[in-house]
Amino acid sequence: MGLVTIKRLAADLMKCGESRVRILDAKKAEEALTREDVRRLVKERVIIKLQAIGVGRSKAQRKHERKREGRRRGPGSKKGTPFAAKSRKRRWIEKTRAQRKLLKSMKQKMDNSAYRKTYRMVKGSAFRTKKQLTIYLEEKGSSKGEAQ
User: Fold this and answer.
1) Which domains does the chain have, with CATH numbers?
2) Looking at the chain, which runs of residues are DSSP E strands?
3) How far apart are CA 144 and CA 140, in angstroms?
């Protein structure tokens, strides 16, 4: 039997591809006539199966570790628009919740009508930041004891 045929039979017996089959002793292998002979050669380690080659994960693990440390997050790594990372709606929700929380903490110092007005302004995105909101409240002097 030819070596090509033996290789094909061995691959079938060892349940792998022909590229993973290695014949160590060609003379001994050529003497094989039947499938049983090929099975015997596999048992005698004249024909061996190479270990499967996989894709290593070490680079990916190293990259993941760097990301966990906070690296690889700069502007050069960003893809898409600024709103691809966080939508406009999500940004609005986060900003509004923070401003409402601040407003709630200042509620006892405020007149009720002033509180309601400012609350509505927060909803309408009148203030970009909490700092702007505090400046507005200081300027208005919307405390209960003060004149408006």
Assistant:
1) 3-49 (1.10.1650.10), 88-140 (1.10.1200)
2) 21-23, 47-49
3) 12
Q: Is the pTM of this model over 0.85?
A: no
Residue by residue, what is the 3-state secondary structure of 102-124?
HHHHCHHHECHHHHHHHHHHHHC
Q: What CA–CA distance (Å, rounded) separates 146 from 140?
A: 10
Neighbours of 89 (CB within 10 A): 9
* Partners of 48 in beta bridges: 22
**HSE (side-chain half, CA atoms, 13 Å) at 108:** 1
| CA–CA gap between residue 111 and residue 143 (Å, rounded) | 6
Maximum C-alpha span of the chain: 110
pLDDT in tens, 109-135: 899 999 999 999 999 999 999 999 999
